[in-house]
Amino acid sequence: MKSLALFLCLAQLWGCHSVPVGPALVYRELDCDDPETEQAALVAVDYINNHVLRGYKHTLNQIDKVKVWPRRPMGEVFELEIDTLETTCHVLDPTPLANCSVRPQMQHAVEGDCDFRLLKQDGQFTVLFAKCDSSPDSAEDVRKVCPQCPLLAPLNDTRVVHAVDAALTAFNAQSNGSYFRLVEVSRAQLTPLPPSTYVEFAVAATDCVAAEVTDPAKCNLLAEKQYGFCKATLTEKVGGEDVAVTCTVFQTQPLIPQPQPDGTEAVGPTVVADPGVTVPEASPDLPAAALVVGPVVVAIPEAPLPEHRAHYDLRHAFMGVASVESASGEAFHVGKVPKVVQPDVAVAAGPVVHPCPGRIRHFKI
Fold first, then answer.
1. Measured by CB atoms within 10 angstroms of the end CB, which terminus of the chain is less buried, N or C?
2. Dihedral (C-alpha) 196, 91, 315, 303: value to the nearest 10 degrees?
């Protein structure tokens, strides 16, 4: 009887060990400065600039983390954390990102913090998930670099609003062409001595002639959108004020006919590729992968000034982002402990050094 009981226990133990266990989540860690990682990060940055409708373009500053998950039946999912920096190019500016200068710290720089998941399949990256936020540098850090430099001012400050109105009025008064309307106030700074307000703002051309406008409310934006970007300084003086303004008007943005359910084509404020941008050539040091053409410009509506905000936060750039399944086909679970595979790293005693975060391309905020 004891032999029979012992046999049953052994059989149960053997049966438990023979039951196949579900596939464990396995990911590999790449160097944050690996060419493949950088290629994924550049696609992520293109995605940001193609979806931000207000404010300024961002550029890659640092790759913080990267995990690469296998995805069934094929492909891999790159899970990235990246830092970006605001450039001096407005999102409506067709200048390629490579030619846009990073805004220096003395001008009160803005940093972006983003999480991305990208699917790489057949050598092409597709963004599956994107989440970003951004914030200006701290006042203390700005003061360390430039003690007298002005900080960012709220975009709805009464002095800012007045400076923009005065600058746009002065620009239209000098114009021999279309009357331009305000699209957004992009940036502002207040200087105490001499008392002055510096502003940057975006404008759009209307169907009215500037010299003939009597009622701006009757002026409509052109069907083929034409945007401009202005910089102005309003200086307060005894008995009045001086306004200095310069505006750059970009080429028109033709609307692309969109197919309708009834087979006809309609034109609307849809996403259009910027004709002034060429597709960048892939670097020979980077693996073959799809590059997102950018920037993409949409016909953005006029909007009220953000309350007490000094910049347009990237967290409002992405809409309708859905959760993403893991590379192995299972949902990401915080409680699971995945296995880590590090390619080209020999197994040896001692601590494993993770090659992240990567290099800082500009400066750290």
1. N
2. 70
